[in-house]
C-alpha cells in the first residue's frame, strides 16, 4: 500500500501528460524563500483536498550497492517523530477522515493525503514535521525490511512477467541507474539498514528539493499562507541530487531470452532508449508520443490493424512512450503471439510496421485523430483533480515547469507527419534497443 | 504550528469531525427522474466541468451463464465495443474518438455494466453511438475470434498466477453447485465452445430495460437526461429483473492448499457475512473496518505487517453478492511464514469475536468513516458509480444524508453483538504456493 504506485507510476505519467487544467480548475504557482515550489489547483466541486509533497529524489539517486533505499525510506517516513508517536501518522490522518499513502519512482518520491479541505493545515503540519524530524531505530528498520521483502515477493518474484521486465531494464541501461529496479535487488534490500536510511534522509529531504501540490476546494492565497507557516521555516539543504551516470553510446542491439516454468503465455518485448520531454528538444518528445499512438495505442493503431486484425499473428500488441523522466527513457513495444504463431513471427511483424512507418510516415487522418484525442483528453482530465495533482507533481519533479505541462498540447498540435516519420527513423534504432522473449520451459524455442 | 492539535485530537478533532458530517449532503443533491419512456434513474447535476457520466448496471451477469458456458457474459460484454450497426470494431472506435466519448463494458458475477463518459457538447451523437452498441452489436465473426483468443490468452496466464488460482479455488470450494463456483471468465473449454448465436442471445437476455439501474451525473438537466437515457436504452427489450438463486450459506471450514512453485504463498480466507439489508449491517461494516478494512490502521495490518513484517498487505472486507453474503480477506506471505500469518489472522478474528472493540477503536473508526465519506464524491464518475450501487442496494434517496448518522449511532454493544458472527475455526481458507507448516 505504501508505494502502491511503484510500478504504476511510470505508465501513469505517460498517460496523463497530454492533460492540462483549463479554466474550470485554475493553477497557481509560488516559491517559498527556502526554495520549495508550490502548485495549487482549484476544484470546488467537493469539500476535499489532495495534499502532496514530491521530493526530487528517487531510486536512480541511490548510492551503488544500496538499491531499494529510496523506496525503503519512503516506508520509514510513516514511522514517527518526536511529535507524532511511532505508527501514528496514518492513524491521525484516518481519525480525521483522511487517506494517505506514498510512492517511489526512479526520479521522485511522493507523499500524499486526501482529506476534508478544512484539515489541510493539520496534514501540512505533519508532513513538514517528518521532512526533518523523523525518529528511527534498528527495530523499526528490521521489521520494515521484512515488509519490503514481502512486497518484492508480491510485485516481482511471484510474477515471471515482472522478473522479465526487470531483466529487460537492466539490459537497456548499460550505465544509468534506471537499470536497477525501484524496489531494489533482493540481495541488496536484505543488507539495507539504519545508517543507509539516515544518510539518504539527511541528504535529500529538504524544502529546496521538494514540491508541494495542493488540489481541491482551496484558495491559492490561503494555501500559500499555510505553506509559509508549516514549510517556510525549514532550512534548505543547498544540496540537490547529483547528476546521474549517463549512458555511453549504445552500439549493439541486445537480445535476451528468459525461460520460466510459470510462463503460459509467451510474449516479445522491445525497448529503445530515447529522449524525454525534459532532456532534449521538446518537439522530439511530442513526435515520439504521437509515434507511440500511431504504432500501438488501441484498435485503430497500426500494430493492431495489421498484426492483430489483418494477419491475426498476435492476440495483443502495444507501444508506450514514457515522456516524463529526468534522463533518457524507454520507448516500448510488445506483441503476444496468437496460437500457432511464434515470437519471431510477431517480432518480424512489429519490425515490418516500424519499417513501413519510417518509409511512409503517418497519414494525415492518423495525425488528426491523435491530435484531436490529445485535446479532448484535457476535458476528460478535469473530472479527476487528484489526477491533475499527480500530473503537475510528476512533471515538476523531473525538472519540467507548469508552462511545459500547459504547452504540451500545442507541441502535439505542431507535430508534422515528417516529424513522426523522422522520430521513428532516428530513435527506433536497433543499436539502442533490447529485444526480449519471455517463454515457458517447454514448447517453442522462439 | 498545527502539531498541538494532535495531542488534543480526542476532544478537538471530534468536534470538527461532527461538523464535517453534513458536508457531502450539502454538496450533492440527488434527483429521482423518470424519463418520458418510463425509465426511473438518479441524477446529480454538476455544471463545473463540461462532462456527463452515465453508469448502467444490468442485474444478472455471469451468475446467469448457462452451466456449460461459464464466461459467456464476460465475452459478450467484451464484444460490445467491437462493432455495432454498420460500424466494424475499428469504425466504432474511430467514431467514439471523434466524439471524445469513452465507453466501458464489463461483466461481473451479478451484473453487466456500462460506463459512459461523454462531452456535454456532443451528447446526442455520443448517446446514439452508445445506443447502437447496446441495440445492434455485430458479434462479427472476426471480432469474436479475436476476443476469444485474448480471453484464452488471459486464462492461460491465470493458470500460474497465484492470485487468480486462489480466487478461483476459493469460490469453487465455497459455492459448489451454484454459479458462483465458476469463474466469470469461464474455462478454456467453455470459451472455445461459445458461439456467435449464444453471444447475441445472451446480450438480448441480460441487457434489458427491466434489469437496468441507471445514474447520470454532470452538466445536464433532468429533462435532457431523461431523453438521453431513453436514447441509450431505446433498442433494448423490456424484460424483468432476474430471479435470485440463494447460494450455499457456509463455505467449508479448513485449509485447502494448491501447490504452485512460487516463493510467496497467496491466501484467501472467508466466511459467511450479513446481507446488506440486515439491521446489523452497518455495525458489521464498522466492526470489519476495525478488524481488517481500515487500511494502515486495521488490527490485521497492525499485527501482521507493522508488528511482525509478515506481509506487505492484509485486509478483510464485507463482500455482498446477490446470492451470498461473505466476509472475505487476503494475505500474501513467504512460503515459510504463511502459517504464522494465518495464525495471527485467526487470533485477531477470535479476539474480535470474544472481546469486540474498544471505545478508542470505535471512536477512531467513526471519525474515519464519517470524514472519508466525502472523498467518494469528488468526481462525476465516482458519484455515478455510487448512485448505481445505492439504487441496487435499495438504500433510498436520503441515504447519502443519513449514512453518517447511521455510523455515528453504532455502539460498543452493537459491535460486540455483531462480532459474534466471526468464526475463527470456521474460516474457509485457500493457500496457493508452497506453504510450509500447514
TrEMBL record, chain A:
User: What positions does the domain Peptidase M16 N-terminal occupy?
Assistant: 38-183
Matching entries from InterPro entries are given as:
Metalloenz_LuxS/M16, MPP/UQCRC_Complex, Pept_M16_N, Peptidase_M16_C
List each copy of the Peptidase M16 C-terminal domain by range.
196-373
UniProt entry tagged with the keyword ATP-binding? no
Name of the featured protein: Insulinase family protein
Q: Which family does it belong to?
A: Belongs to the peptidase M16 family.
Signal sequence interval, chain numbering: 1-23
Keywords, in A-Z order: Hydrolase, Metalloprotease, Protease, Signal
Q: Which domain of life is it from?
A: Bacteria
Annotated organism of origin? Thermohalobaculum xanthum
Molecular functions per Gene Ontology = metal ion binding; metallopeptidase activity
Amino acid at each position: 500500500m505504501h508505494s502502491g504506485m511503484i510500478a504504476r507510476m511510470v505508465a501513469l505519467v505517460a498517460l496523463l501528460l497530454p492533460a492540462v487544467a483549463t479554466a474550470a480548475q485554475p493553477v497557481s504557482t509560488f516559491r517559498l524563500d527556502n526554495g520549495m515550489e508550490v502548485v495549487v489547483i482549484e476544484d470546488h466541486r467537493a469539500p476535499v483536498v489532495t495534499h502532496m509533497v514530491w521530493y526530487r529524489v528517487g531510486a536512480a539517486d541511490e548510492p551503488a550497492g544500496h538499491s531499494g533505499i529510496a523506496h525503503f525510506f519512503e516506508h520509514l517516513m510513516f514511522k514517527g517523530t518526536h511529535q507524532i508517536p511511532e505508527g501514528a501518522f496514518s492513524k491521525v490522518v484516518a481519525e480525521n477522515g483522511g487517506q494517505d499513502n506514498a510512492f517511489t519512482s526512479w526520479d521522485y518520491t511522493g507523499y500524499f493525503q486526501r482529506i476534508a479541505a478544512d484539515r489541510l493545515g493539520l496534514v501540512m503540519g505533519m508532513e513538514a514535521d517528518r521532512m526533518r524530524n523523523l525518529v528511527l531505530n534498528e527495530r523499526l528498520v528490521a521489521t520494515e525490511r521484512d515488509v519490503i521483502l514481502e512486497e518484492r515477493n508480491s510485485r516481482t518474484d511471484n510474477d515471471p512477467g515482472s522478473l522479465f521486465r526487470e531483466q529487460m531494464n537492466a539490459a537497456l541501461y548499460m550505465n544509468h541507474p534506471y537499470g536497477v529496479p525501484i524496489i531494489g535487488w533482493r540481495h541488496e534490500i536484505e543488507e539495507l539498514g539504519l545508517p543507509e536510511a539516515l544518510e539518504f534522509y539527511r541528504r535529500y529531504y529538504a524544502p529546496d528539493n521538494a514540491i508541494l501540490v495542493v488540489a481541491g476546494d482551496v484558495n491559492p492565497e490561503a494555501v500559500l499562507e499555510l505553506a509559509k507557516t508549516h514549510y517556510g521555516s525549514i532550512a534548505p539543504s543547498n544540496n540537490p541530487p547529483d547528476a546521474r551516470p549517463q549512458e555511453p553510446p549504445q552500439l549493439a542491439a541486445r537480445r535476451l531470452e528468459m525461460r520460466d516454468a510459470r510462463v503460459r503465455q509467451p510474449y516479445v518485448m522491445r525497448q529503445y532508449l530515447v529522449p524525454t520531454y525534459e532532456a532534449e528538444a521538446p518537439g522530439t518528445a511530442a513526435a515520439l508520443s504521437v509515434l507511440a499512438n500511431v504504432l500501438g495505442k488501441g484498435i485503430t493503431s497500426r500494430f493492431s490493424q495489421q498484426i492483430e486484425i489483418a494477419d491475426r499473428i498476435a492476440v495483443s500488441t502495444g507501444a508506450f512512450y514514457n515522456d516524463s523522466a529526468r534522463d533518457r527513457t524507454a520507448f516500448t513495444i510488445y506483441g503476444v503471439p496468437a496460437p500457432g504463431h511464434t515470437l519471431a513471427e510477431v517480432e518480424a511483424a512489429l519490425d515490418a510496421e516500424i519499417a513501413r512507418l519510417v518509409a511512409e510516415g503517418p497519414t494525415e487522418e492518423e495525425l488528426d485523430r491523435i491530435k484531436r484525442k490529445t485535446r479532448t483528453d484535457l476535458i476528460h482530465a478535469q473530472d479527476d483533480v487528484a489526477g491533475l495533482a499527480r500530473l503537475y507533481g510528476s512533471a515538476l519533479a523531473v525538472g519540467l515547469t507548469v508552462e511545459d505541462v500547459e504547452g504540451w498540447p500545442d507541441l502535439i498540435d505542431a507535430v508534422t507527419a515528417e516529424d513522426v516519420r523522422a522520430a521513428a527513423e532516428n530513435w527506433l534504432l536497433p543499436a539502442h534497443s533490447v529485444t526480449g522473449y519471455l517463454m515457458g520451459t517447454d514448447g517453442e524455442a522462439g | 504550528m498545527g502539531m498541538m492539535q494532535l495531542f488534543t485530537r480526542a476532544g478537538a478533532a471530534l468536534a470538527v469531525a461532527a461538523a464535517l458530517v453534513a458536508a457531502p449532503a450539502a454538496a450533492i443533491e440527488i434527483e429521482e427522474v423518470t424519463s418520458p419512456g418510463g425509465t426511473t434513474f438518479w441524477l446529480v447535476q454538476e455544471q463545473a466541468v463540461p462532462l456527463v457520466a452515465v453508469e448502467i448496471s444490468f442485474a444478472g451477469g455471469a451468475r446467469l451463464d448457462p452451466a456449460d458456458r461459464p464466461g459467456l457474459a464476460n465475452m459478450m460484454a467484451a464484444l460490445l465495443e467491437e462493432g455495432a450497426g454498420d460500424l466494424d470494431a475499428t469504425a466504432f472506435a474511430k467514431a467514439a474518438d471523434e466524439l471524445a466519448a469513452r465507453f466501458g463494458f464489463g461483466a461481473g458475477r451479478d451484473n453487466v455494466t456500462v460506463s459512459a463518459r461523454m462531452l456535454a457538447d456532443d451528447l446526442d451523437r455520443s448517446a446514439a453511438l452508445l445506443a447502437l452498441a447496446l441495440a445492434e452489436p455485430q458479434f462479427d465473426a472476426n471480432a469474436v475470434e479475436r476476443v476469444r483468443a485474448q480471453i484464452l490468452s488471459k486464462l492461460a496466464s491465470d493458470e500460474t498466477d497465484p492470485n487468480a488460482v486462489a480466487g478461483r479455488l476459493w469460490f469453487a470450494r465455497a459455492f459448489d453447485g451454484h454459479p458462483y463456483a465458476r469463474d466469470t471468465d469461464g474455462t478454456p473449454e467453455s470459451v472455445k465452445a461459445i458461439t456467435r448465436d449464444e453471444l447475441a442471445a445472451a446480450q438480448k437476455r441480460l441487457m434489458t430495460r427491466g434489469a437496468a439501474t441507471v445514474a447520470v451525473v454532470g452538466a445536464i438537466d433532468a429533462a435532457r437526461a431523461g431523453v438521453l437515457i431513453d436514447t441509450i436504452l431505446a433498442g433494448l427489450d423490456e424484460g424483468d429483473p432476474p430471479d435470485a438463486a440463494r447460494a450455499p450459506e457456509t463455505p467449508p471450514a479448513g485449509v485447502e492448499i494448491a501447490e504452485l512453485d512460487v516463493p510467496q504463498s497467496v491466501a484467501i480466507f472467508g466466511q459467511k457475512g450479513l446481507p446488506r439489508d440486515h439491521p446489523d449491517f452497518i455495525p458489521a461494516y464498522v466492526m470489519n473496518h476495525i478488524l481488517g478494512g481500515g487500511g494502515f490502521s486495521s488490527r490485521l495490518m497492525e499485527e501482521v505487517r507493522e508488528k511482525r513484517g509478515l506481509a506487505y498487505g492484509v485486509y478483510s472486507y464485507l463482500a455482498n453478492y446477490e446470492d451470498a453474503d461473505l466476509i472475505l480477506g487476503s494475505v500474501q506471505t513467504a512460503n515459510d511464514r504463511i502459517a504464522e500469518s494465518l495464525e495471527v489472522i485467526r487470533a485477531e478474528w477470535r479476539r474480535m469475536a470474544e472481546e469486540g472493540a474498544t471505545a478508542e477503536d470505535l471512536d477512531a473508526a467513526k471519525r474515519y468513516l464519517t470524514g472519508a465519506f466525502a472523498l467518494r464524491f469528488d468526481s462525476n464518475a465516482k458519484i455515478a458509480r455510487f448512485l448505481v450501487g445505492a439504487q441496487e442496494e435499495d438504500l433510498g434517496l436520503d441515504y447519502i444524508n443519513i449514512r453518517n448518522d447511521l455510523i455515528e449511532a453504532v455502539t460498543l454493544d452493537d459491535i460486540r453483538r455483531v462480532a459474534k458472527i466471526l468464526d475463527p475455526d470456521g474460516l474457509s481458507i485457500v493457500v496457493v504456493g508452497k506453504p510450509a507448516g500447514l
